[in-house]
């Protein structure tokens, strides 16, 4: 069945929007205030420490496979619109599907990438230093006393919770 070119374009646009929405839904939340469903009700050992240094880091995104699958479908549909005859449309669908899968995987990983900080923490009990990388909007300042929570994911949180970020300096826009 041949679709008029306007309907083909609308179908491709609709699939693209659906794919983008699906990828956005796959974005993984992370950080000290986020607990996955598998972590609820699980005991974690906690000890105190002090932040002795931090540095900004990029926390790489994970690919669940949803981006690859959605990209492959959208790419195959778009690719099938090119080429002449049945074999040309099939070849276009295959090439479009492979290209879409590669692009969808990369888009999903990028959507799941987070900015954060790698903290060097001196543990109070032993004096040992450890490093914990986690997604944070603002760094926990050097000298802050923190809890280090050892569960499925290691987290550090300031004792007393997070304070709001400092106000910008006067004249800052």
Description of the structure:
Strands 3-2-1-4-5 form a five-stranded antiparallel beta sheet, with no helix packed on it. α1 packs antiparallel against α2 and α2 packs antiparallel against α3. It is built from three helices and five strands; from the N terminus they run αβααββββ. Residues 23-28 have low confidence and may be disordered. It has two domains: 1-30 and 63-111, no CATH class; 34-60 and 113-162, OB fold (Dihydrolipoamide Acetyltransferase, E2P), CATH 2.40.50.840. With 173 residues, it is an alpha+beta fold.
What structural class do the secondary elements suggest?
alpha+beta
| Helical coverage, percent range | 25-40%
User: Based on the structure, what is the oligomeric state of the protein chains?
Assistant: single chain
Q: Give the strand tally.
A: 5
| Morphology call | elongated
DSSP helix count? 3
The overall pLDDT average reads 74
Main beta-sheet strand count, sense and barrel state = 5 strands, antiparallel
The SSE string, one letter per element, is HEHHEEEE
Low-confidence stretches: 23-28
Lateral arrangement of strands in the main beta sheet: 3-2-1-4-5
What is the CA-atom radius of gyration, in angstroms? 24 Å
Beta content comes to: 15-25%
